[in-house]
Amino acid sequence: MTGLASLGATGLGRFKGLLGGRSASAATPVEVSAARASNRELRQALMLLRDYEQSGIGWFWSTDSEGKISYITEGVAQKLGKTRDELVGESFHSLFILDRDEDDTVERTLPLIVSARKTFSELAVRAALEEDEIWWAISGRPQYSASGEFAGYIGNGSDITESRRSQRDASRMAQYDALTGLANRHRMGKKLHATLTAYKAAKRACALMILDLDRFKQVNDTLGHPAGDELLKQVAQRLKRIIPETCEIGRLGGDEFQGILPDVDDRGRLGDMARKIIEMISQPYSIEGSRCVIGASVGIAVAPYDGIDADELTRSADLALYAAKGGGRGMFRFYSCDLHAEAERRRHIEDDLRDALAKDQIYLNYQPIIDLKSSKVVGLEAVMRWEHPELGNVPPSVFIPIAEETNLISALGDWAVRKACDDVVTLPGLVSVAVNVSPAQFGNPNFPTVVTQALAASGLDPERLELEVTESIFLADDGVIEQMFKSLKVLGVRLSLDDFGTGYSALGYLETADFDKIKIDQGFIRGITEKGSRNVAIIRSIVALAEGLDMVTTAEGIEAHDELEMMRKLGVQQIQGYIYAKPAGLDVVAEAMASGEWFIEPNGPSRYRNDRMTVLRKIGLIHEDHRYDATMRNMSRTGGLVEGLVDVPAGTQFVVDFGEGQLGVATVRRSAGSMMGLEFELP
Ligand code: C2E
Ligand code: MG
Ligand code: MG
Q1: Positive or negative CA dihedral for 318, 645, 346, 439?
Q2: Above 50 in pLDDT, residue 1?
Q3: Overall pTM > 0.85
C-alpha cells in the first residue's frame, strides 16, 4: 500500500495523461530508459489503482485550482449519473452535499471547506444529483505547484451507505417505538424540553396530553400479548388520525401515550380534542377475529400556566391523568393546582395506611344479615374500619381503593379473614360470617392457605365462612380464577357474588363459577318503589336466575319498609340494611346474641326518601371554561348526588348539562372523595 500512498501523494493529476493513453513527449535515451523503468513502475501502479477502483472499495478524485474536477473514478461518476468525461470540468462541490449531524451546530458547507484550502478527512457527503441516497466519506489534500501556488485538490473517497443506514436505523430505534412507530419516551422528553425551552422566551403556550388506556391489561391477560401488541398498534393509528400533524405523538411505554401540542392553550379546543380521542379509542377493535373494547383516560396540562419546564409540566399532566382515572375512567381532566393538594393528601393516607394495622387502628364491624321470612339473623358481614388519629373515621370507600393500588390490600384483607374467624367463634350463636375479598387477594395463589390457616387457628366450621367477591375478579385470567374457586370449594367455605350487576362482566362466568349467594347491589334497590321503575323487573330476574342456579339472594341497603315489602314480594330471601341494623362492634353483636339467637324487627321510615330517584345518568359539568363528564347518581327536585370529580370545594358553582340542551346552574353543598351533593339554583 505504500506505493499507492506515495502515488497518491505525488498527485493523481500527474497520471492523467497516462490514464488517458497519451504518450510521453520526445526524450533522450537515458531519459527513455529511465522513463521505461519508471513507466513499468507506473504501469504496475496504475494496474493496482485500476484494480482498486474497480473493486469499489475506494475511489479517487482531483480538482484544478478552481475547484473543477480533473479526475474522478468512473464508477463514482456513474453513480452520480454521468460519465467521467462529463464530470471533468464541473465544480467539485456542486456534486456533493455535506451531511450534518442533528446536533452539529457549526454552520459548515462543502464550498466553505474547499475554499479554505485545508486538508480534510472522512467528511460524510451525499450525492447532490442522486435520488437514492448514497453516502461517501471523502478526504482531500490541497496541492501546490513548485512555485507555491495552489494547484487544486487530490483525494479519495469510500462508500459508507451501509454503515450510514444501520447508524440511522439504530438512531431511529433509539428514538422511536418499534411496535407502533410513534416517538418513544426518550424522543418525547427531548422534544418537550426543546419546545418548552424555545417557547419560554417567546411566551408561547404548549399543551401536553397524557393518555392511559383503561382495561388494556385485561385484553393482554385474556387475549394474549400478541393481541395486546396489535391493539396498541391500532390505538396508535387512531391517535395519528385525531391529533393534528403539527403535534408530536409518542408512546411512553406500556399503554401510556403522550401528545405534545405546540401553541395550543384553548381549553375548549383541548377538551374537544380529548373527548374525541376518548371516543375514538373507545370504539370496538377487531383483533385476531375477537372483538374487544377498551377505554382511555386523559390528563392535560398547559405550559406555561401549569408548568414551565418539561418535568413540571409532565408532573402536572400526570396528576390530571390520575384524577381522570380516579374520577371513574373514560374521562379527561385538566391540571388544576388543588390536584397537588389532593395528591399530597392521598400520599399521606397511603403512608399512614402502611402502618395502620401495626398501630391497631384497623378493626372490623359486623352488620347482620337477616332471613326475611323469620327475621332471624343468619349471618354477619365483616366491614373494615379505620380510625385515623387525625382524620377520624376514614371510610372503606376511600382507603380500600388506596390499599388496592399500593399492594397493601393483601395484608389488610388476609388480616380481616383471620380476625373475622377468630371473632365469630367467640359469639354465642352459630351465625356465619362474610368477609370481603379484593380481586388482588383472590388472584393470589397463596390465598387458600391463608383461609385454611384462619380456619384452623380459630376452629371455625368452614361452612360458616363466606367469602364475598365482586364481578371484577372475572377480568383476570380465567384459569387462575377457576383454580381458586376449586381450591376454596374443597375447603368447604361458601362464596358470594357481591354488588351483583354493577360490574362490566357478562353473565357467562356464572356457568363455571359456583357461587352460593348473590348479593343484589343497593343501586338496584334505590327507587324500586317508584312508579315504572325498571329495577323491579331486574331484581325479579336476578331472583329467578339465583333460584335456577341454586343460589341464595341477599338484598343490600334496605332502609325503608316499602323497599322491604317489595323484596318480600319479589321473593328475595335475605336482607342486609339499615332497616334492621347498621354495622356494629363485636361487643354489641355479642350482647344482642347472648341467648344464642338474634331476631330483629325492621325499623325504619315507611318509604325511602322517595323524592330522590336513582338515576345513573351521564351529565356534563361546566366550570369556567372546562367541561367535565360526571354521573348523576340520584336526583331530587332540589338537588342531586354526582360522582366523577374528586374533592370539589363546597360552594363551587357548575352549569349542569343534562343533555339534549337541558342546562341548569347548581352549587356544591358537600363533597367527599369522588361524590358531591349539588343543589340546583331552581327546583
Ligand atoms: P359492600 O361489601 O357492598 O358492603 C356493604 C356496604 O353497604 C357497607 O358499607 C355497609 O355499611 C353498607 N350498607 C349496608 N346497609 C346499608 C343501608 O341500608 N344503607 C346504606 N346507605 N348503606 C348500607 P361500608 O362498610 O362503607 O363498606 C363499603 C365497601 O367497602 C364494601 O361494600 C366493600 O366493598 C368494601 N369493604 C369493606 N370492608 C372490606 C374488607 O375488609 N375488605 C375489602 N376488600 N373490602 C371491604
Ligand atoms: Mg360485601
Ligand atoms: Mg355489596
Answers
A1: negative
A2: no
A3: no
